[in-house]
Write a structure and sequence with these properties.
heterodimer, A: about 100 residues, mainly beta, OB fold (Dihydrolipoamide Acetyltransferase, E2P), five-stranded mixed beta barrel, 6 strands, about 5% helix, about 40% strand, elongated, B: about 90 residues
């Protein structure tokens, strides 16, 4: 899973019929300092995330393992909303200058 | 399976239902010489690992197999804690 921030959503009327009812969100990958990285994904929401929230995204075939996305053409799903990150290894924090 | 080092944990109250009660940990992938490889990932803990420990983890849809649930959107899970690594001397 990777960390990301929801930055918007996608509206689509004409799509695969299996995807009717899905909520698509645009997620920008972020690093451990909560800074934006370059990558974006469009992910199906399974937890009720909204714009601005930090979320975890599962990708690949694992993303079909929810009751809604089972056997559907999906390759990224939001599976948790992050409350807090806790990087507790001191040498890692120092080495990577995490704040 | 890949080697990694646990560097911290993630608090997430709102998760996909089947994942309630599972611990999510930050894992920095490493090689056999403890060098960091790439970016940290988040993995579900199935063995009781903690920050600072060297572990091995699995990725992709197999990551659901060690969890006691039928389906869960998990693409990485920790399946073992490493005690020692033995490598031939003349590598």
């Amino acid at each position: 899973m990777f960390l990301g921030r929801v930055i918007g959503n996608v509206w689509s009327t004409k799509k695969d019929e299996n995807l009717v009812g899905a909520k698509f969100l645009i997620v920008r990958q972020i690093d451990l300092n909560m800074k934006d990285k370059e990558n974006f994904v469009v992910a199906v929401d399974s937890v009720g995330a909204g714009e601005g929230e930090v979320v975890l995204v599962a990708t690949g075939s694992s993303s079909r393992q929810t009751s809604f996305t089972k056997d559907k053409p999906v390759d990224a799903v939001i599976m948790a909303i992050v409350d807090k990150l806790d990087i507790s290894l001191k040498e890692y924090i120092e080495e990577h200058r995490l704040s | 399976m890949f080697l990694g080092k646990v560097i911290g944990n993630v608090w997430a109250t709102k998760k996909y239902e089947a994942l309630n009660s599972f611990k999510l940990l930050f894992v920095q992938p490493i090689n056999s010489e403890n060098k960091e490889l790439g970016e940290p990932i988040i993995a579900v803990d199935t063995v009781g690992a903690g920050p600072g420990e060297k572990i091995f983890y699995i990725t992709a849809s197999e990551a659901v197999i060690p969890l006691p649930v039928d389906m869960a959107p998990v693409d990485a899970s920790i399946v073992g804690i490493v005690d020692t690594i033995n490598l031939p001397v003349d590598r």
